[in-house]
Amino acid sequence: MSQDHKEVDQKEHTTGEKYPFDVANKGLASKTTHTKGEWLCTRCEKKNAQEYLKCIHCQTPKPIQRRPVLRFFLFNSLTLELVLTPFFIKKSSSIPWKNTENFDCIIAIDFGTEGTAMGINMKKSKGVHLITDWNSSGVSDSTELNGKTKTALLLDENHNIIAFGNEAWNKYQSPNNEDANKWLLFHRFKMCLYDLASQYETNKQATVKQELQSMNEVNVKSETVFVGALKYCKRKAMQYLEQNNLAVDEAKIQWVITVPAIWSEEAKGLMKQWAQQANLWSPSIPNQLIIALEPECASVCMMLAMRDNQSEIQFQTGDCYMMMDLGAGTADMVCHEITGPFQVREMIASFGGPWGGSYVDRDIEALFKQIFGEERMKKFQVIHPKQYFQLLANIEKSKQRFFSNKKTTGAHRIEIPFEFNEFMQENFDGDLEDVISKLEYLGEKGFVSNTIFFF
């Protein structure tokens, strides 16, 4: 959530002060000593240069001056399943909603690494309208009934939009699709805006990927992909308004786009710029676009849920909490102090990293490259892009069902496309069983079997 939608009094970072809560160790931080130009980490007790906002050794946030807090609530392992920002949840007179009086409609895009959702709130009506017909045909599929669709964009060779979401995913791997080798599929592209180094060095210019690689390894400008995705979202929203007799002047629509709290200012600026190119907002209309931080949206949702459900735990002024937003691409953490009804103050700057669920998939992909060789995997991807895509989809499905069934054996199987099996039999020169028997992961052997990988 932006500065326009919360009361935040974030203090400047200072050194040499005792910080009452050590996030990493979940306990009271001991008093620290420091030398001029350096600060001492409260976790690993190593020194860091003044300009670093996080410890370069263990990534613990830099201490700031704070008074002791009264109480502390830790909401651990909170996975965001929200499809909307909190602006759409049951408006109340006790909530200081701001800068919406000039708009008749608010449209929010929860633009996630793995999934995208969109909702509409009309000023003169109650409730939230969820977009469930993401397909270009206007017909919902069963996987979109909860409002979410995949963050996937399908372009033709001229970079025209073919489809977005589950439709893009399904069209690309359709057996009747003869143009798949020419089409460009982009998935989980949101992470191109994440810059690791800029989190830790305030004097380093942030850098984000200028180009994205499609499933068949064709490079396209990041701008083209993001603008295309946002244009599609706008088109679906406007179609919904028209079909449901809710048409409104575009100048009276306020747009909200959610982003991870750990994104750099450059990344947030690019999202704002690309939203303008997609004609979501105009600089001449104040507050027409809100860049909202995902964990802060979750914070307000949590407060509303606690109030409406009459939870046993009710926040009071002075209470503090940690919010963990564990998504597919990133993990965001924020620490807030309650200063009033739906008003918070940041205790420390938001922090986190690229620790989302999609990195499980990447580790499994890395195992395939260890076994079969990176060059062979790249060759298979270029020659059989649809089947390579199917392999990645099978890895994701395998991960999702890992805890769904009771385990009767220690084996967890991954379905392999027939073309992959055939390709590797023709191109793999070594002894597969020997390679697998020697394979190590995190110092362990014997966890992979060729009977698990092949039919």
Gist?
One of its GO terms (molecular function) is zinc ion binding. 26% of the residues lie in helices and 20% in strands. The chain is an alpha+beta fold and 455 residues long.
CATH homologous superfamily of the largest domain, by name? ATPase, nucleotide binding domain
- Low-pLDDT parts are 1-35, 65-97, 196-203
Q: Largest sheet, if any?
A: 6 strands, mixed
- The top level CATH class name of the largest domain: Alpha Beta
CATH-defined fold name of the largest domain: Nucleotidyltransferase, domain 5
Taken as a percent bin, the fraction of beta residues is 15-25%
| Estimated structural class | alpha+beta
| Topology as a string of helices (H) and strands (E) | EEEEEEEEEHEEEHEHEHEEEEHHHHHEEH
Determine the N-to-C terminus distance: 49 Å
Q: How many domains, in number, for the residues?
A: 3
Query: Count of DSSP E strands?
Result: 20
The helicity comes to: 25-40%
Helix run count: 10
* C-alpha Rg (nearest Å): 24 Å
Q: What is the general shape?
A: globular
Second CATH tier, the architecture of the largest domain: 2-Layer Sandwich
Mean pLDDT: 75
Keywords: Metal-binding, Zinc, Zinc-finger
GO molecular function: zinc ion binding
Pfam families: Zn_ribbon_RanBP (PF00641)
Protein name: RanBP2-type domain-containing protein
